[in-house]
Amino acid sequence: MLKAVPVMGAKERKEFLDFPAHLYKNDSQYIRPLDKDVEEVFDPAKNKLFGSGECARFLFQDSSNTTVGRVAVFVNPKYKNEQPTGGIGFFDCTDSQETADFIFDHCKQWLLQRGMKAMDGSINFGERDKFWGVLTEGFTEPLYGMNYNAPYYSRLFENYGFKVYYNQLCYTRPVHAEVSRVFRVMHSKHARNPAISAEPLKKNKLQKFAADFTEVYNRAWASHGDGKVLEYKKTLKMFMSMRPVINEYISWFVYENEKPIAVWMNIPDMNQWFKYLNGKFGLLQKLKFLWIKQFRKNKKMVGIVFGVVPEWQRTGIDGYMIWEGTQHLRKHTDFETTELQWIGDFNPKMIKIAEALDTVVTRKLATYRYLFDAGAEFKRHPEL
Predict the structure, then answer these.
(1) CA 188, 304, 184: angle at the middle one, nearest 5?
(2) FRET label pair with 289: which of 6, 311, 332, 373, CA 20 to 30 Å apart?
(3) Residues 154 and 186 in one domain
(4) How many structural domains is the chain composed of?
(5) Are 137 and 363 in contact, with CB atoms under 8 Å apart?
(6) Residue 61 domain-assigned?
(7) Could you tell me if 319 and 288 lie in one domain?
(8) Is 140 in the same domain as 226?
């Protein structure tokens, strides 16, 4: 007999954090997320969604009180869909359809009591940039903040009745692979224009670059699909938090007469350092992190944002930026591969850019949706 145990005290919180590490103790590709990153999702003082939404965590135990699963279930009013849709996340489970069904049924009832008509999973009670999606292809070391799970998870979801709402595609290419001739031609063209310049992100100018990033992002993406307007203060806070791991050769801005028109943001994959910390980040682990960062070469970088303001789209300015940045990072860094943060299969524009970089899909995650009304029409995510 299975039972649901609410995560209330320190004992349950620790078990919630430790369970995946026990589940994947023999999986060499698993990297434990930092405990603090997970706990921040469920801290009302740090996650503002608690102001308008609701979230609960549960452990699932068998008759011997052994944990066989965990989940978070939540309602986020800012998560807009055709029908009221709740979320489940941080789902982990043994390879048992019976256990998975019990967990999904529990979440369904919790969400029904709050007026929901569907549930998406496995997603985050927060932004899409972390802990989002069920891994379905490419069971290799996850990027920092990315979900990792065993191959049987997709079977558990689909056997219950979940359907793919959209796929999340991760594209990879070797840093030293040949860059498209089109990009190099566009670089040559724009390099002859004295009004055009490119500048790498510098730690001593974070206020300037935060403002430039905010302008490009809002003009390129805010009105695009379900994009959100960024505030400068939030961007600056993000840049300041990234400062310890910023590499000054891998993020680039393009300007027309000093006005920002394009941005290509990359960061080192911090999991290449964090995988040695076993999820902890206390004082000793911070010292260890600094040592590892200094003496262990990080060979993977992650593309997180690529944007061009509307009037410069389809002009080849992206090729100028990519080739300008690539030449510098090849010369000044040890990175061997770059993996783009996931792109939804509903976004053909970004997929086209990724494919133009001669990338290949090396990792795929799925955002699943389950409609509570079996007779309701299932619709995939609308194309942007």
Answers:
(1) 15
(2) 332
(3) no
(4) 2
(5) yes
(6) yes
(7) yes
(8) no
Region for residue 373 given its phi and psi (left: phi exceeds 0; alpha: psi -120 to 50; beta: otherwise) = beta
Q: What is the pLDDT along the chain (384 residues), one digit of tens a residue?
A: 899 999 999 999 999 999 999 999 999 999 999 999 999 999 999 999 999 999 999 999 999 999 999 999 999 998 999 999 999 999 999 999 999 999 999 999 999 999 999 999 999 999 898 999 999 999 999 999 999 999 999 999 999 999 999 999 999 999 999 888 888 999 999 999 999 999 999 999 999 999 999 999 999 876 554 556 889 999 999 999 999 889 999 999 999 999 999 999 999 999 999 999 999 999 999 999 999 999 999 999 999 888 899 999 989 999 999 999 999 999 999 999 999 989 999 999 889 888 877 899 999 999 999 999 999 999 999 998
CATH number at residue 29: 3.40.630.30
Task: Determine, yes or no, domain membership for 47.
Answer: yes
Question: Quick check: 239 and 210 in contact, CB under 8 A?
Answer: yes
CA distance 359 to 194: 31
Asked whether residue 161 is domain-assigned, the answer is yes
Query: Across the chain, which distance is largest between two alpha carbons, in Å?
Result: 73
CA distance 42 to 32: 18
DSSP 125-187: SS-TTSS-SEEEE--SPPPTT-----TTHHHHHHHHT-EEEEEEEEEEEETTSPPPHHHHHHH
Q: What is the pTM of this model?
A: 0.91
Integer Cα distance of 358 and 341 in angstroms: 16
Residues 205 and 330 in one domain: yes
Domain boundary among 291, 318, 335: 335
CA atoms within 13 A on the CB side of 170: 28
Same domain (yes/no): 183, 326: yes
Is 326 among the domain residues?
yes
Which H/E stretch holds residue 208? helix 206-221
